[in-house]
Amino acid sequence: MSETLYPLHTALSLAASGMPVLPLRRGKVPFGNCRTCAGNACGGRPNMKIAGPCRCPGVCHAWAAATTEPAVIASPSWVAAWQQAVCVGYHPGGAGLTVVDLDNAEAIAWARTALPATQTVPTTRGEHWIYRGAMASRNAVGPGVDIKSAMSYARYLGPGTGTMADLPDVVRALAVKEPAAVRPAPHAVAAPTGVGSGECRHRTPAYLERGIAMAEQRITEARSAIHTTLYRVFLAVLSTHGRCGCLTDTHVARLFIAAQAKGESPRHCTDAWTNALTQLGL
User: 217 in helix, strand or coil?
Assistant: First the structure.
């Protein structure tokens, strides 16, 4: 089989299985838009959430070009691209998949302790962990960790090994962006006093103590994405105890101390706390 035709044959086989594909050129990046489509002058494509549609017969608009249509994949303009392609790309979200792209040994070690086992594909520098289910894509969710799903593309590197698992909540949570930092008022680190009696509405003070201890442990045990972990911990604590008036400066200080022991600055702790308050409307 001709080497120049190999990507095309692979692409047609993948498309037949329901995986939207596109050719990737040198550097493992999509082909650039044609002159007509440069700068989205054509109006883009509907699945890029840009007014359109684009009727360009070429391989334009990066991941949005991905298709399962054999007539398009084997059309003259696409064949010309396949002859220059170095590999086949695919749109994971379009196939109902999510790829956790682990770029080094440290990222792989983290995944083995933090994520459920699933289908695994070796890459040049690391591994792709592939889950069944689509989600928002986001790069740099941790050191050497990217998420490729909706509105993104990944290289096809073979079927891999292992059984594909359903997309777990722990991966979905990685793509949740922390709100933009809100400048806090001076000393605004304690939760507001609730309108209740000041007693924890969850029966006993021991419930609050247990919750704070668990929050400290979660912060202390975080191995990556510390900023995001801190915000989520603060959000969880405030969603449970922020309205009953039982949190004190001492409780908040314990969480801040745990975060600063992980390398967080006092300023970021305050910003994360304020953002959590804002998110919950407290």
Answer: helix
**Average pLDDT of span 128-150:** 91
**For residues 281 and 180, what is the distance between their CA atoms, to the nearest angstrom?**
15
Q: pLDDT, tens digit, for every residue of 153-177?
A: 999 999 999 999 999 988 888 877 6
**Tokens at 65, concatenated:** 């070009």
Contacts of 204 (CB under 8 A, 6+ apart): none
For residue 257, count other CB atoms closer than 10 A to its CB. 12
DSSP count for the chain of H helices, then E strands: 9, 10
Q: Residue 16: count other Cβ atoms within 10 Å of its Cβ.
A: 10
Q: Region 203-210: what's the mean pLDDT? A: 70
Q: Are 107 and 33 in contact (CB under 8 A)?
A: no
Considering the entire predicted model, what is its pTM? Answer: 0.62
Residue with the two structure tokens 């549609």:
53
pLDDT at 147 over 60: yes
Strand partners, 98: 131
Q: Angle at Cα 100 formed by Cα 222 and Cα 4, nearest 5°? A: 155
Alpha helices by DSSP H, listed for 193-281, are 205-221, 226-241, 249-261, 266-280
Sign, Cα dihedral of 6, 90, 124, 119 = negative
Taking Cα atoms as reference points, which of 159, 96, 81, 163 lies closest to residue 132? 96
Answer for the pair 247, 190: CB distance below 8 angstroms, yes or no.
yes
Answer whether 191's CB lies under 8 Å from 238's CB.
yes
Residue 198 has pLDDT above 80, yes or no: no
